[in-house]
Amino acid sequence: MQKMMGLVRRCVDDYHMIDDGDRIAVGVSGGKDSLALLVLLAGLRKYYNKSFALEAITIDMGLGMDYSGIEQLCREWEVPYTIVKTEIAPIIFDHRKEKNPCSMCSKMRRGALNQAILEKGFNKLALGHHYDDAVETFLMSLLFEGRISCFQPVTDLDRTGIIQIRPMLYIHEKTVDNFTSRMKLPVLTNRCPVDKTTKREEVKQLIFDLSKTYPDLKERIFGAMQRYPLPAWEPQGRYKRPKKQ
Question: Which of 62, 133, 134, 149 could disulfide-link to 129, CB 3.0 to 4.6 Å?
């Protein structure tokens, strides 16, 4: 726990993610990444040198998922929890019968989440993207769009005034997996009909295969994103490249 919070704090400091008085919403899907982020920020809140409020928000997609375990987790960590019920999944899969649903689903979830955050008066949204997500997104942009691009550690959404932060960018996916297992976090099974069949899964497998020949592939890509920085990727704090975990 201390090691993980240390990595989160270093990332937060390097990219100036948290200020005094921030009201931060954590987008909690029920997956391992968002639950790990929730617990780590709840732990960080107790000793960080800047005071901030924290609340978990789940967008219920209408897939019949049980969030009672997450409700209990939030009580244990003294984090308020809100579930926003929607019919996003039935609209996409039953009514529209979308052949490529991921883009529309993402936009609808993001819209519902932003609306809930604005209604509650939060100024920041914390998302559970980790080290591997950044590398995969970079390669997806290169391979499928012909662009050198990636999401940013801190993103200012001008239209809403919300600032997105990604405090787990220094943590590897395997470390997140181990953490959620050891902490016995209530990870939910993804009921999305297209889970594990996306372009991201293709790139994840490609990286896995290439890493057999080039073991430092992910570290080199992540380092390149910072040394020759993409927009907003150059760390402002005392940065040391995250080691293998």
Answer: 133
